[in-house]
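Async update (no meeting this week)

Hi team, since we skipped the sync, here's where things stand on the single-chain job. The sequence we agreed to prioritize is pasted below, unchanged from the tracker. I ran it this morning and attached the output directly underneath so nobody has to dig for it. Comments welcome in thread, and please keep replies under the output.
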Amino acid sequence: MPQMIFLNLPVKDLETSKSFWTKLGYSFNPQFTDENAACLVISDTIFAMLLTEQRFKDFTKKDITDATVSTEAIFALSAENREAVDTLVDGALAAGGSPSGETQDFGFMYGRAFQDVDHHNWEVMWMDVEAMQEATAGE
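Output:
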């Protein structure tokens, strides 16, 4: 069985967060979704548990970071090509997300970033591995 990852993210309004991710074409696993949590399916091995802040507090004694003023983490997702990067980020912006940082274009690597409706930072990156190896071969 491949190793899986489950991100646990606090959200202010679970229904708003679910709506945001649904507009981007993602789905939720109903087995792990209720009024306090929603299991966002990113891929076969990557999931994000969107937890109401109250539910999130059940798992930690630390304060919840105010993501509007502090960066808690940056979550990076791969994309199949440049167009897929633009499609996902443009969709996130249209669904209520906000831009985060500048577009990164190195020819062999292209990425953009957005903040979701709870201000969590997401990067979407595409890389041409062969072109990257050629570009860095002389270093």
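Quick observations from my side:
The mean pLDDT is 94.
The longest helix spans residues 82-94.
Reply here if anything looks off.
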